[in-house]
Amino acid sequence: MPKALREAITETLWENVKSYDLAEVRVPGLDPQREGEDPHYSKRAYKSATT
Predict the structure, then answer these.
(1) pTM of the model
(2) pLDDT at 33 > cutoff 70
């Protein structure tokens, strides 16, 4: 997936999804939450790290 597309998805999720719901969001091409990752810490960092 192109970096610009990943960043656009990340920003959209960051702006529109609560952190406690983020791990349940499934985006084709992006990995699901991994053990030890915490979307409550930083949603933007969490989604960026899972790409």
Answers:
(1) 0.56
(2) yes
